[in-house]
Each structure stands twice: as C-alpha cells, then as structure tokens.
C-alpha cells in the first residue's frame, strides 16, 4: 500500500512514526474517515469542518487547507488505483519530549491511508448483528464526544466485548442507560414509520452520514425524532439500522446484550430480531441516489 506521510506519497514500509510522537505515546491526535466514489470525496466540506472542529477543541495545530488535504486524498486514491475507497486522515500532536504537555510538540504529523476493502454489499443485503456491552460511553464532561480522537480505548474495550458476543458491532449506553452510538457507527430504529436516533446530548459524535440520512429522510416525508432512548424502546422496533462513512446504511437483524456471566455466544438470546426492513432499504436507495448526484456534479 502507498500512503501519504507528512507531505508526500511513500510506500507503507517507509512511513515510520517517531517513538517521540505524542500520537504514539498518548493517543494525542484526531482523525477523519472519508469515502470516495469515482475519486470524488462525498461530503468533503462536512468532513473537513469536523476535522478542524476536533483540532480546535484540542488546541491542536491543523495548518493544512481544505484544498491541500483533498488533493492529498486523491493522491492516495490514484497511487493505490482505488477510485472507490475509504481513506483515513490521521493528525497527531507531533514529536516532543516525554510528558503530557502538548505545547512541547512543535509540528503536527499527518498520515493518510486506505481502509481495508470489505464486502459491504453482503452486509447491506443480509444485515448485521449488534451487541450492547457492559462498558459505557465516556461521559461528555470527561471527553468531548465531538472530538474524533485517536484515543479509542473506550470503544476498543467495547469492541472486545462484541467479539466475545460474536456480533458485528457494539452499541454503547451512557451512564444514564441511554443508547448512544456504535464503536464506528451511528444508531437508528424505526417504529410505526417514524425514525428515531439518539440525540447528540446523549454523548455521541455528530456523524456526517447520520446527518445526511436525517436530511434525506425528512425530505422524503419521514418523521425523524432525536431523543433519549433505552433498550426497552427497541423491543417494539420494526426496523433497526446503522450508519457510517464506510458502511453507508446497513440493516440490523439481531440485538444482543452482554451477559453478566461468560457464556458461549451461541447460547445468547437476542433482545430484538427482525429482517432488513423496507424503510431502511428505501433510505439506502435515497442515499445511493445522493452519491450519484454528488459525483456527477463534479
């Protein structure tokens, strides 16, 4: 794989990060993942805005312009012959002496690389299972959820629980037992034709794809409600789905809750299950139409 490292395209084996980089030492940095279709980055202005927002909230230098970063993304796509792919942009605090003081780092680091390819069409068709882990989402007063941080220990621990449950994704509750978001996705459910999704005040990241789905659904005449929801609210759901930059919209077919005592995953009983539903399918069609319109306008 070829990656964009600091200011140019290099072979991945030559993209070496210093042991003094605070991103390596402390997870001090931010990232953003974008999706390119026919070499055009979908909703790039929104992704760039969120990247800059994360940087401001961490007082992290992010000196590159939108045009510079977009050009670098397209260089990654061309260098890897991958016009339809996801690219992760990682910004680290940069090199400095040991210690937590961020002002000791003089220059930020920049890396861009492709996400591994996977068969998302199969996920769209058959749906996925999700699990509710014991670990809770970081409280917003502990770590601002609008910072897309390189430090992912909270969601890594949740993902480990999900692996033990044998599920595709884990969706975390907050300290008040409200549903928040997945480790890399936003969460929606549908009941009697109305679409529900956790409010940002529950402690979740404002997803770019989440916002686009809400916009498309409302434009199509669907009612979308953002609020605080418990697991019991899912028992009467007709459909459940996830959204993310890499997945787009994927239906959920089963929801499990992590057991108090370790048991084999095949013994777990779902607290909700159902086939991919028509509203989820229709929303994904609208989303794909929006992609086509977006790429054809360039």
Structure characterization notes:
It is a single chain. The chain has 298 residues and is an alpha+beta fold. The protein is globular. The strands form 2 sheets. Strands 7, 8, 9, 10, 11, 12, 13, 14 and 15 form a 9-stranded mixed beta sheet that branches. A hairpin with a 5-residue loop joins β8 (169-173) and β9 (179-182). The protein folds into 2 domains: 2-117, D-amino Acid Aminotransferase, Chain A, domain 1 (2-Layer Sandwich); 121-296, Alpha-Beta Barrel (D-amino Acid Aminotransferase, Chain A, domain 2), CATH 3.20.10.10. The protein is 28% helix and 27% strand. The mean pLDDT is 94. The chain has helices spanning 22-26, 44-57, 66-79, 120-126, 153-165, 208-219, 278-296, and strands at 2-5, 8-11, 29-37, 40-41, 85-92, 109-114, 128-132, 169-173, 179-182, 186-191, 194-198, 224-227, 239-244, 248-257, 272-273. The longest helix is centred in the last third of the chain and has 19 residues, at 278-296.
Q: Can you tag this structure with a few keywords?
A:
298 residues, alpha+beta, D-amino Acid Aminotransferase, Chain A, domain 1, D-amino Acid Aminotransferase, Chain A, domain 2, 2 domains, nine-stranded mixed beta sheet, six-stranded antiparallel beta sheet, 15 strands
Number of domains: 2
Low-confidence stretches: none
Write down the CATH class of the largest domain: Alpha Beta
Pattern of helices and strands: EEHEEHHEEHEHEEEEHEEEEH
| Mass-distribution shape | globular
CATH topology descriptor of the largest domain: D-amino Acid Aminotransferase, Chain A, domain 2
Tally of contiguous helical segments: 7
Question: What proportion strand?
Answer: 25-35%
């Amino acid at each position: 794989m070829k990656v964009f490292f600091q200011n140019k395209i290099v072979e991945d084996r030559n993209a070496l990060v210093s042991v003094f980089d605070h991103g390596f030492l402390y997870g001090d940095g931010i990232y953003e993942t974008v999706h390119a279709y026919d070499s055009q980055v979908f909703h790039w202005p929104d992704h760039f805005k969120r990247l800059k927002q994360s940087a401001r909230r961490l007082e992290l230098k992010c000196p590159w312009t939108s045009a510079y970063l977009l050009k670098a993304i397209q260089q990654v796509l061309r260098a890897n012959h991958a016009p339809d792919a996801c690219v992760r942009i990682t910004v680290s605090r940069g090199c400095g002496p040991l210690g937590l003081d961020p002002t000791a780092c003089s220059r930020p680091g920049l890396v861009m690389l492709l996400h591994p390819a996977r068969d998302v069409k199969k996920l769209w068709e058959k749906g996925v299972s999700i699990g509710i882990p014991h670990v809770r989402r970081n409280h917003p007063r502990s770590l601002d959820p609008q910072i897309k941080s390189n430090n992912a220990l909270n969601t890594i621990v949740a993902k480990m629980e999900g692996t033990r449950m044998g599920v595709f994704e884990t969706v975390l509750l907050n300290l008040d037992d409200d549903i928040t978001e997945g480790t890399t996705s936003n969460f929606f459910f549908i009941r009697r034709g109305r679409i529900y999704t956790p409010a940002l005040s529950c402690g979740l990241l404002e997803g770019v794809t989440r916002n686009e789905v809400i916009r498309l659904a409302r434009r199509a005449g669907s009612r979308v409600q953002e609020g605080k929801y418990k697991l019991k609210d899912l028992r009467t759901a007709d459909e459940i789905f996830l959204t993310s930059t890499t997945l787009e919209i994927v239906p959920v077919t089963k929801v499990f809750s992590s057991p108090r005592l370790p048991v084999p995953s095949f013994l777990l009983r779902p607290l909700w299950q159902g086939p991919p539903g028509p509203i989820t399918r229709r929303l994904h069609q609208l989303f794909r139409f929006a992609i086509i319109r977006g790429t054809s306008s360039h």
